[in-house]
Design a protein that fits this description.
Aminopeptidase; Transcription Elongation Factor S-II, Chain A; nine-stranded mixed sheet; about 35% helix; globular; protease; transmembrane helix; transmembrane; Peptidase_M28B
């Protein structure tokens, strides 16, 4: 086709797609289309915002971070709680858990564990095989995270000793003439009037009393020395006993003290003797401490009867435990290899001491008859000696110049490893931890009461929890079990562990439950932080008593309900007094009708326990159940079973005691001191604790309410509130710590509880105030009043 033809054709064709066509606006289907579009966008944005706001809090809820970022954890249908069953127990109901803990412990198992622990010596730093055995048993029971924690500690071991009563023998005239110019005391020879045996009888009825490797009688941390001097009977060697002697002008300097065990910690007897210039201390157990169960009252002595064996000797530490426990060369920091070492003599003696039996004490005491004032010439605290039937008149002395004691004490001091066994059952809340502890070391081969009744019970507690784990239970809170070493020397194993882990414990530990002597008789006894009082009453009501007078009686029914204040003398000390962790100490003690307990003697043996202490081993089972149930209550309750009001009530009573002490002071200045600011601070705290405990109770009640799934946010809010309440309970006791520490013993940080400065075992309340009043130092009384008021106000502010 030519180009002309193409042009002609184009002039006749039309391209309708290229034509301009007039288009009118389409008719709207909805009259309010703009509003509809706006609403659609707004609704979509709102739904997205709600979804974001719903998911975002789940990312930061307590407990969600423990799921390691699994995508499903951040969807609304995943659980933000510690476990899916919260607030109920996971795997087992709480009632089923209690059932396991009440039915699993067995007397034959407790007896088996005790037989192992008491079969040979287990002195501190010399019991590695027992530590390994304990760790392996715990692993078998279902606690695979059990291991040994080692510290290098400063200890002494005995190498030799002697105590002899020497009597001057007159020399011939020729010998005296040859010694002209020599002092009178050197003009005579001495002969041995009595050589102390310093050991306990081997009894065929007591299997461990005759072991070849039995431990000699000695004192932990006693000083080396060889001294010969006159001696003085100083009663129980309390601070006030020594004051009585000073006031009576009894010569003490340069003398040896003969002192009875009892009333205060033995190390403080040595400390006061040392301060008054005495050169040695001899400590014996007087039958006065045995109540009615004595040979004088017609009872046969062990092994034939329940009275004390005359040869029994109480070993023990002479560390100044009210100044600082733990390794004396590493105060306030752990004794790890390479740790710097301090001079220990601020907290251990510099004069020698030895323990003896009353059999060895008899010739020494009888030789004082007629010398110096009689004990009855002093106050009532000096009366009641139990050896009168043996001819002892309890004269004070001093012994005449021709009658002296030669005291020899030879000790080897070493830095040596010791071994704590630590077991862990991880809970779903890693920042809420309950610790259970018992020490494993003993001064002797046996130690059936102290500590092996507690060690046997701990094994049964762990075995019981292991059964629960097998049944699918997982604890809410983390549980730590501790078998401490070197408690006997000065609470060393527990103290070093707390000093090492104090940063973590301060953030995580909720409570510490201690059992030292699990049983040595039928009477339940306890000491505790007041926060734990209510829980103690509840769990003791769940355990059947072995000595029922009426069928069905519980431990609570036969217990007088008295809860002592926390002092020292066992492993709760570092937790309560240094770290501010609420603590409790449990055990069955001897009654007035019980066989005499041979404390720290070879006769604290398996055979004694089997015949006299717990013949059917039922009290071992009972303390196991109380211990396990108390732990379970603290571990599993969504809101920890603390009661702050009981604490405030306790403070009120403690202050009343301080006020009474001030009024009885001989100082008019002390009598006139007003404690009104402290009283008002305690009243304010009491009001707040009532409200806080009531709020916690209301939360506990709300936890049991069924929340519909569409009101999930209420449960989330409740969880937040529970965590907040538990945190406040956790940190409540810490508010009573004063980091500067008590005057002259700054290791102790608690302003409410500490061992008495001159008692050691017994607890002192408001120790800063009490010691300032004793010293009649008004400035310090005022200072400590301000310190304590500040601590109380901090506790009040925490709970608001």
């Amino acid at each position: 086709m030519s180009s002309d033809e193409k042009v002609a054709m184009a002039s006749h064709e039309q391209a309708p797609l290229l034509q301009v066509v007039r288009v009118i606006p389409p008719r709207q289907r909805y009259s309010q289309n703009t509003i509809r579009r706006f609403c659609t966008i707004a609704l979509s944005s709102t739904l997205i915002a709600i979804l974001v706001l719903f998911l975002l809090p789940l990312r930061f809820l307590p407990g969600t971070r423990e799921h390691h970022g699994r995508p499903s954890d951040y969807f609304p249908w995943s659980s933000p709680y510690p476990h899916k069953a919260w607030p109920r127990s996971e795997g087992l109901s709480y009632e089923d858990l209690q059932g396991v803990l009440l039915t699993t412990p067995k007397a034959e198992k407790a007896r088996e564990w005790s037989h192992y622990y008491t079969a040979g010596p287990h002195l501190a730093g010399k019991n590695l095989s027992q530590a390994i055995w304990t760790m392996e048993r715990w692993q078998e029971f279902g606690v695979p995270q059990s291991s040994i924690v080692t510290y290098d500690i400063y200890l002494n071991y005995p190498t030799g000793h002697r105590l002899a009563l020497l009597e001057k023998a007159a020399k011939s005239e020729e010998a005296l003439a040859d010694q002209d110019g020599v002092e009178e005391t050197n003009k005579a020879d001495y002969k041995v009037k009595y050589e102390c045996r310093l050991e306990e009888d081997v009894l065929k009825e007591d299997g461990t009393s005759g072991l070849d490797n039995r431990i000699p009688t000695f004192h932990g941390y006693s000083a080396n020395g060889n001294v010969t001097a006159q001696y003085v009977y100083v009663n129980f060697g309390t601070y006030y006993d020594f004051e009585d002697l000073v006031k009576a002008n009894v010569s003490l300097e340069g003398k040896i003290a003969i002192v009875k065990y009892g009333r205060i910690f033995r190390g403080l007897k040595v400390k006061r003797a040392q301060e008054l210039g005495m050169v040695g201390t001899v400590i014996y157990t007087d039958p006065q401490e045995d109540g009615n169960i004595t040979e004088a009252n017609g009872y046969k002595t062990y092994p034939d009867g329940p009275a004390r064996n005359p040869s029994s000797v109480q070993r023990g530490s002479t560390q100044f435990i009210s100044i600082a426990p733990g390794d004396p060369t590493t105060p306030s920091y752990p004794s790890k290899p390479g740790a710097p070492r301090q001079d220990p003599h601020n907290s251990i003696p510099s004069i020698p001491s030895v323990p003896i039996s009353y059999q060895d004490a008899l010739p020494i005491l009888k030789s004082l008859n007629g010398h110096g004032p009689h004990a009855s010439e002093f106050n009532g605290f000096w009366r009641g000696g139990g050896l009168g039937y043996k001819g002892v008149e309890y004269n004070i002395g001093p012994s005449p110049p021709g009658l002296v004691l030669n005291l020899v004490n030879e000790q080897e001091y070493v830095t040596t490893p010791m071994w704590n066994v630590i077991g862990i059952i991880n809970g779903t809340l890693p920042d809420e931890v309950i610790v259970l502890g018992n020490h494993r070391d003993a001064w002797i081969a046996g130690g059936a009461g102290d500590p092996s009744s507690g060690s046997a019970a701990m094994n049964e507690v762990i075995r019981s929890f292991g059964v629960a784990l097998e049944k699918g239970w997982k604890p809410l809170r983390t549980i730590i079990f501790a078998s401490w070493d070197a408690e006997e020397y000065g609470l060393i194993g527990s103290t070093e562990w707390v000093e090492e882990y104090i940063p973590w414990l301060s953030k995580a530990a909720m409570a510490y439950i201690n059992v030292d002597v699990g049983t040595r008789g039928p009477s339940f006894r306890t000491a505790a932080s007041p926060l734990l009082n209510t829980a103690l009453y509840e769990v003791t009501s769940l355990v059947q008593s072995p000595n029922q007078t009426v069928k069905g009686q519980t431990v609570r029914d036969l217990w007088n309900g008295y809860i002592a204040t926390m002092g020292s003398g066992s492993d709760f000390t570092a937790f309560q007094d240094f770290a501010g962790i609420p603590s409790v100490d449990l055990g069955f003690m001897a009654s007035s009708e019980s066989a005499v307990y041979h404390y720290h003697s070879n006769y604290d043996s398996f055979d004694w326990m089997d015949k006299f202490g717990d013949e059917n081993w039922h009290y071992h089972v009972a303390i196991t159940k109380v211990w396990a149930l108390l732990a379970a209550a603290l571990v599993e309750s969504p809101i920890i079973q603390f009661n702050a009001t009981a604490y405030a009530d306790g403070l009120k009573n403690y202050l009343k005691s301080v006020e009474d002490q001030a009024k009885k002071s001989s100082s008019l200045e002390m009598q006139g001191i007003s404690f009104d600011p402290l009283e008002k601070a305690i009243v304010r705290l009491h009001i707040v604790t009532l409200d806080f405990d009531a709020y916690a109770a209301s939360l506990a009640s709300a936890i049991d309410d069924d929340v519909p799934w569409w009101e999930w946010w209420k449960k989330v809010k409740l969880y937040y509130e529970v965590r907040r309440v538990n945190d406040k309970y956790k940190y409540f006791e810490r508010q009573f710590l004063y980091q500067t520490g008590l005057d002259g013993r700054n290791w102790f940080k608690h302003v409410v509880f500490a061992p008495g400065l001159w008692t050691g075992y017994a607890g002192a309340t408001f120790p800063g105030l009490v010691e300032s009043i004793d010293a009649e130092n008004k400035t310090n009384v005022v200072r400590w009043s301000h310190i304590i008021e500040s601590n109380i106000n901090a506790a009040t502010a925490l709970l608001k």
